[in-house]
Amino acid sequence: MKKIFLLLVISVSIISCKKDEVIPPKELPMPDVIDTTGFLEIHIENVVNGAPLSLHTSTYVSSANDTFSVDILKYYISNVQLVTASGYTYTEVESYYLVDHSQPNSLHLMIKKVPSNHFSSINFTIGVDSTRNVSGSQTGALDPLNDMFWTWNSGYIMAKMEGHSPQSPEPTKKIVYHIGGFSGKFSGIRNVSLVFPNTADVTKNHIPILNLKADLYQWFVQPNFSNFSTSYFITSIVQESKDMADNYANMFSVVSVVN
Amino acid sequence: MKKTLSILFISFIAFSCSVDPEIKPIITEDEIKEVVPEGWPTPIYNFSSNPLTADGFTLGRFLFYDPILSSDNTISCGSCHQQFAAFANVGHDISHGVNGLLGTRNTPAIQNVNWLPAFMHDGGINHIEVMPLGPITNPVEMNETMTNVVAKLSASGKYKQLFTKAYGDDMVNTQRIFKAIAQFMGTMYSYNSKYDKVKSGDESFTAQEQSGYTLFVQRCSSCHKEPLFSDYDYRNNGLVAYADSGRAHITGNPSDRYKFKTPSLRNIEKTAPYMHDGRFYTLDQCLNHYVSGIVSSSTLDPLLVGGISLSAQDKSDLIAFLKTLTDTKFLTDPRYSEIH
User: A160, A179 in Cβ contact below 8 A?
Assistant: First the structure.
């Protein structure tokens, strides 16, 4: 019965598309306004050297053998591009996402208006492009309410990590990394390109999932980073912040693409 | 019928007690216009992505004068930016914030800010729309978070009305706040001084003002460029200011140490005290600094090496000219006056 009903609906809709229908054509949806685009969902798992990241309580060991815990991990992902094997590139507009480990929803990025295609790689930026750093007041992921905008030296904090380490010389044992800078030799913006193990097949009715891993361990590896007793507080645009950006540029890897 | 009327009446009273009195339109659309005076360069900020309206301007004006933007509701933008001082702060060498805390720098004037490539004495803030974030969140100024500002404004009946008028609904967010303040600050135009009237041929300088102007063009205008009276570059003008590295604080570049943005000289008669740290209270002291007070250092502006030579007569002529930059119309314009 259900099948028959479905058939009926389909045939009605096919019929209703015919030109000789009684309904005036202007009331029909025009073909070019039918949205044939779909979505691609990105799931990000933040880890430290493979172990799931858990704020405040868990401790981790850096490559310099320093122990540390994490209180804040936030970073921007922007200007997402999906690329097919033949080189077709879809560039999302208004593509700004703030990943905040304390907000589980922020670990799921829904890439919008993706044309149906078989995508084999992704490009994105860690941070916020220079244009949006100099364009005045923004909303959404870029709202200064998100505590990722420097007020005394305008510009976005591209990535932020705060935590504790017994190796920190600070009385409170804090370690603080606010990495920014949108131009010049110490810029904190990094471009990431990742190749998929199999294509992500986007259709109007199907949302593939791209599982990414973001490894905080990479922030603190040599030679760009020494250890928490010498580099425990980076909050301005300097050589050290540039070095850390060089490190976090390597934090992403593809786990799987699930169609 | 009578019953209905009395119910209506009662509900009217109840209603009128529960809402804030309606804020009457203060200005008309005709009174708020983007201005680019004849012969001035193209402004850096225009209102293309922030359409200028009387209601947007009015919201910005209320916000500017409202201490609700500070953590203890005591300090407004207007507390330190006073209209009669071209929105500088008379008598305060450095700014005073919440809890009696002192800032480190002198309150700058607000005028013709659409031409500013960057804000603050060190140019750290790059856009008029994010400029208020600095003082609002600075612990020694207004010491407030934008989260609290949004919450306080959202709870206010007055602001529900003002946001609705400006934006069509009463949603409060940081972008709406900042764009409204940008409409108010961005339309603070000063271009009706005697100097401007002389330039347009409507008035003429006295002999002393004219000789001061001639001196000004020779000795001062390479940095204090007409018609804005600033080149908006960063320069070390020979003040001993080792506690404040100035522009270098932003760029991290040692060659920018002790450099500060050249301030405009418009309305300078009214913006005392002077310099980034407000150390000079009179124009005479300022000129004496350039004559004999320049302290040499590796980043001293090359134009100031050896100081500027000025006789006593030169100085009084120069000051006579500088006073022609006073724009009384701007300083008393009712559109910019305090409102609550």
Answer: yes
